Amino acid sequence: MSAANPVAYISEATWKELVLDCDIPVPVDFWAPWCGPCRMIAPLVDERAKLYAGRVRCLKRNTDESPNKATEYGIRSIPTVLILKKGEKKDAIVGAVSKATLVATVEKYLDR
């Protein structure tokens, strides 16, 4: 993650550290480069990552490169934004949803 790109791409090796051991909400965008709807919501995920910096950890997982986690979490279509908190699945957003839907879903899990 950097100031220019606040969303990190995660691998099998970093999943435990960045997702399961994290105390703040972790929206994980499961996507693939060929997926048109994935490209449509990517800017929304990036925007939320910047806006909620320090309050959420937005991550991306390419399902073509590492399909195991998608299978483990029952993800059958992409894009899917899985929201985890303290390693527990809290919610999932499936498809190219509106900004309002993404915001409302993520904000349910923010600490006030």
From TrEMBL:
The record marks 36-37 as: Contributes to redox potential value. Coiled coil: none annotated. SUPFAM superfamilies: Thioredoxin-like. Pfam families: Thioredoxin. One of its GO terms (cellular component) is cytoplasm. The record marks 29 as: Deprotonates C-terminal active site Cys. Transmembrane segments: none annotated. Disulfide bonds join 35-38. The active site is at residues 35, 38. GO terms for molecular function: protein-disulfide reductase activity. Residues 1-111 form the Thioredoxin domain. Keywords: Disulfide bond, Electron transport, Redox-active center, Transit peptide, Transport. Belongs to the thioredoxin family. NCBIfam families: thioredoxin. This is Thioredoxin.
